[in-house]
Amino acid sequence: MYLDVHAHLDPYFFTEEQIEAAIKNAEKNNVKIIIANGLNKETNRHVLQLAKKYPQIKAALGIYPWEAMMDDVKAGHYKEESINFNPDEELKFIKKHKNDIIAIGEVGIDQKNEHKTRKQFEIFEKIIILAKEIEKPLIIHSRKAEAEVIDILEKHQAKKVIMHCFSGKKALWQKIRDNKWYCSIPTNCTRSDHFQELIKFMPMTQLFGETDSPFLAPQKDQKNEPANVVETYKMIAKIKKMELQEVENSLWMNYQEMFL
Ligand SMILES: [Zn+2]
């Protein structure tokens, strides 16, 4: 069986019917667990609803790097209201729902457009402290700030960490390995040398598969869905020269280690 440790099944991208269909497809493909990640007030509440409705969906609540979210609003991906919330209130909400969630995510730092304010860093540090307090793994987004993200996590001695779609340089991969953190490999690894190299580098005991649905699909311009996580597993099997079943078993053991 397969696990998708990072997906977004937001109303921005999927209608109720499309979510229902995606869940059915996942089931058909033997994808038994899907971790739906929240980004803000609106999606966090939606994630909780999904987890209540579908037993295969597990909830992760998060606060996406604030200014990167603002860029997405400008690009028309999200509505203006999606950045209108108080991060401290949202942290309280996450804490209140600690028994309903499996992880904290998606959280992290994004400096893509050279966002220079301290706000992202302040929120991120508060989130790491909360994750330790409520003993939940962190699902991390880092873009153009990979070294800083690793430094902050090390400073707080974060133990349960999944680097989602890690695009940092090879020199940083060793740090992830040494810290015994995990990399979740997105389905676009089918067309990315970077992720194929990352699979080669990381031990089996530190890997997961993810879709980041609706993004990062195996084929360019395809809308991604959890059923496709199988493609990541196949790529891991090919690179590690293992049977698919062995990869399934390994990643299931990783899941138990990390989340249960
Ligand atoms: Zn994501």
Low-pLDDT residue intervals, each spanning 5 or more residues: none
CATH superfamily: Metal-dependent hydrolases
As a percent range, the share of strand residues is 15-25%
- Alpha-carbon distance between the two ends: 17 Å
Principal-axes geometry comes out as globular
Question: Which CATH-level-2 architecture?
Answer: Alpha-Beta Barrel
Bound molecules: zinc ion
How many beta strands in the DSSP annotation? 8
Mean pLDDT: 95
CATH class: Alpha Beta
How many domain regions? 1
Largest beta sheet, briefly? 8 strands, parallel
CATH topology: TIM Barrel
Estimated radius of gyration: 17 Å
Order of helices and strands: EHEHEHHEHEHEHEHEHH
Number of discrete helical segments: 10
Detailed description of the structure:
This protein has 260 residues and is α/β, with parallel strands linked by helices. It has a single domain (2-259), classed as TIM Barrel, CATH 3.20.20.140. Helices cover 45% and strands 17% of the residues. It has 10 helices and 8 strands. An 8-stranded parallel β-sheet has the order 1-2-3-4-5-6-7-8, with helices on both faces. Helix 2 (41-53) links the parallel strand 2 and strand 3. Helix 4 packs parallel to helix 5. The model has no long low-confidence stretch (mean pLDDT 95). Zinc ion binds at residues 6, 8, 37, 106, 212.
